[in-house]
Amino acid sequence: MVAIAIVYFSGQGHTHLMAESLATGVETAGGTPHLLRITGDQIVNGRWQDESILASLNAADGIVFGSPTYMGGIAGQFKCFIDAASATWFQQGWKDKIAGGFTHSGSPSGDKQGTLLYLAINAAQHGMIWVGNAEMPNPETGVNRLGSFMGPMGQSYLDMSGAPAKVEPGDLESANLYGQRLVAVANKLTS
Ligand SMILES: Cc1cc2nc3c(=O)[nH]c(=O)nc-3n(C[C@H](O)[C@H](O)[C@H](O)COP(=O)(O)O)c2cc1C
């Protein structure tokens, strides 16, 4: 059974909901998901640190990186994690693991592509094998309604009411199907 780590930051909960749906997809396909949330309090004096998260990432067959889109790129908190994981890069510890990424933003474009491109570059630096999103856009179900093939995207307009985060069902389904795809690809590579 392949283990897929889902490491992500979420300020207001939307990216978290996508991560949970992705984890459900991993389970549906017979894999074991590990949800690993990056939080601001793991950053001490500007340096991210959490040995247990790093241990889970090192043990996984695949790693999916998730971040909301902030100013057209990944959130600063997530960048702190990525920079700290450069210690693993020195040993190429994640080489040949499968990798993927997802994001969520407030605007329909929101320059989300910048986030996914950066996540793919980071994976390439680690020698990982990037898996894209293979779902055809379906206006009826909303699956891949934003037409993103680098990885699933979600979008919800900014809600200042203080209500709990909500994500479009099609965006959640896209994340779920992506989780299933990651397990299928990981199974092929490990068989
Ligand atoms: C600092 C900051 C920068 C943001 N920059 C963008 C942006 O460039 N494009 C966009 O569409 N939304 C932007 N947003 C909105 C977030 O992407 C959006 O609220 C998203 O749902 C947050 O995900 P989360 O709930 O997982 O934190 C920004 C929000 C913050 C707080």
Strands, total number: 9
Low-confidence stretches: none
In CATH terms, the superfamily is Flavodoxin domain
> Which structural class should the secondary elements be placed in?
alpha/beta
General description of the model:
The chain is of the alpha/beta class and 191 residues long. It has one domain: Rossmann fold. It has six helices and nine strands. The chain has helices spanning 14-28, 51-59, 76-84, 86-91, 112-125, 169-190, and strands spanning 3-9, 32-38, 43-44, 47-48, 62-70, 73-74, 98-105, 129-130, 153-155. The strands form two sheets. Strands 1, 2, 5, 6, 7, 8 and 9 form a seven-stranded mixed sheet that branches. A two-stranded antiparallel ribbon has the order 3-4. Strand 1 (3-9), helix 1 and strand 2 form a beta-alpha-beta unit. The structure holds flavin mononucleotide. Flavin mononucleotide binds next to helix 1, strand 5 and strand 7.
Topology:
Elements: E1 3-9, H1 14-28, E2 32-38, E3 43-44, E4 47-48, H2 51-59, E5 62-70, E6 73-74, H3 76-84, H4 86-91, E7 98-105, H5 112-125, E8 129-130, E9 153-155, H6 169-190
Parallel strand pairs: 1-2, 1-5, 5-7, 7-8, 7-9
Antiparallel strand pairs: 3-4, 5-6
The structure holds flavin mononucleotide (FMN).
Flavin mononucleotide binds at residues 10-16, 68-72, 104-107, 110-111, 156, 158, 165.
